[in-house]
Amino acid sequence: MSSRFAFFLLAIFIATCLAKKIRPPRPPQHKVVADLKSVDFLFTATSPKTIHAHSSYPVILSVERSLGQVDFEVRITNCPNPNEDQQDWVAPGGVLKKARNKTLVETLAKGHATLEPETSTILQLNVESLLIDEVYNSHSVIIQTDKPIYKPGETVQFRVLFLDRFLKPVPVDLEAKKVIIHIYDSERNIVKSWTGREIPFQKKFGFVKGSLTLSKEPNLGDWSVEVVSKGGSIDEGEEEKESRSFSVDQYVLPKFKVELKTIPTFVTFNESKFNVEVKSIYTHGKGVQGPCTVLVKPTYEPYWGYWNDPEKEKNRPPRSISRTKELNAGVGMIEFDLKEDLKIKEADATEYGMEYTIEASCTETASGKIINATKTIHLYKYPWKMTTVNLPANYKPGFPLIFSIKVARHDDTPVGDDNPEALKIRHGFAYNVEEGVIFTAIPPTGLVTVTFNPPTNDMINVNGVEATYKGLTQWLGIPSRQISPTNSYMELTLQNHKNVLEKPPLLVGETASILVRVNKPFDSLNWVMISRGVMVAWDRISLTDPVQEKLLRIPCEAGSDPSVHIVVYTILGESDDVIAESLKIDVKGVEDKMLRVGVRDYTEFNKTVEPGTNVTLCFENVGEGSLLALRGVDQSVLLLKEDKDIDGNTVKEIEQQYESGMTSIRSWGGSDSFQVFENTGINIMSNAIITKNEYPIYRTRENLQNTIAK
Prior knowledge:
This protein is mostly beta strands. The protein is built from 6 helices and 42 strands. Helices cover 6% and strands 39% of the residues. The strands form 12 sheets. Strands 34, 35, 36, 37, 38 and 39 form a 6-stranded mixed beta sheet that branches. It has a 5-stranded mixed beta sheet with strand order 11-18-17-13-14, with no helix packed on it. The chain has a 5-stranded mixed beta sheet with strand order 20-26-25-22-23, with no helix packed on it.
């Protein structure tokens, strides 16, 4: 992964008001002011918190209440080869709709930037600098080996892929970026290296293919392929590394594998019996004949105090129980009763569950070869659980708090109950005890949707609800109240779905209909859409008359998948407060035809080929000019060591890298207006009032500056 560093982006805005229309008399000249609230116009400037080399960096400006056009200047400092300043202007009540994008140089230097206010002939503004948290290269690196484990003397084949944030190949200049590929042995000795032009790079496809033949007596253990880049980091002394490990060992390929399944998947104190289904199967599909021993024991030793007390040790419950059975065609079923076999007491069974480990050892009668497998099972006090679903980040006085309570078994099977008093919910949103209790039936989906009206009294702050179902009582935490000194709040609701709690993804090109509601009148709205750490769209809407509700229609443009964060904000006229809220929307790309892979002459009745026989692979929906990379692995090898090939999780990890400028665990909302921007990876600078709660757990701009200074 790319290294992370913090440095300052200094954005100096020299704002000049040019009165071009006949208006009421104004003072003949403006003095230099330190109090920004006294300025007769307001502006906001937003930009991504994350900056990427070889990428454009937009700064979006919006101006309110200006009598004339506002000139501005944006400057990026601390670059060894700084670009020229960007200059433009914003009309009264307008927004800069076309970003003044600045393509950054390859290397970005660390440093402390401070604002040096510059003098304008008419007006000078003192504004704080923007803080950019992280710097990434413009590509991601994926390393792949042809299998996870090798014998001495075998050839290790590997690939290196360079991809951009949209998972497309990047034609990287390996010499300019000082890319080096190393292979290390288990003692961290460099066995082989490739640099610059030595690297077998197919530039068109962002693809490296290399190999290394192991010696007959190599160091055994974990080796690694490591890709090092020095030409895109913040500091020339820093390196960006990505590695993939593989093992070198003397081994014999196993001929069969063992799979375990528990029926049911969990047990309770009152229903503690379960069966362990054992399958011992050859890699070609046939069952293995032989005995299998299954042992069940607590994963964590619960019997503290027995070891030093001989009397208690005599009556100590058994630590484990094992049974052996001869498998029939490789399949067997062994029954256990946790409560009886391990003498479990009712006090040991909790609503959170105790974990037990199942260990199986299966022996092949013909060879005496033993293969092991493990699995876990949990023992609970009750068979069901309750959780909250679609819980917002905060609740706001004046707006309903809507979420669902899900009742399900521990295997996530929904629980339904038509008893009108099946579920009891206690809450603190009411002024008396009687109104603070709700009884309701549970639909077959197990989802009970509740709506609360948070009180406007500042002294009341509710932090949870209590739910009870058939003896099980659980405390369900809810978000805290959003902070606003002026009691100004905004609510965003996606209107594309009839049920407010339904959140299926939208398609790229589809328009998101977002209802914006504010508890105080507003006459303009600004919105920014950010995806993968990049601003993909933004706009400003001016209204003829102040309103408290407005429907926004925002298209999900190309590049907005797999999800977007939309931040909507406005400046309230009566208090000059910036009120903001954000919303996460999952977006699904327009699917191309899926790649299909098949084997010629392979049918339901003919699934095998003889050793030494050529196999013909068939591919459908391969785009013209595409590079098709194949990888075939013996299944027996995968039984020895877990494979780390490219899969869906690899793609998710790359996507998360570009969203790492977000600082909140939650995906939407925040504790205050500043945190809304912070959580979605957006910097905001304004001479209006932005509420920022100075709470230790928040990464406020001052806290970061103090940390850097130390």
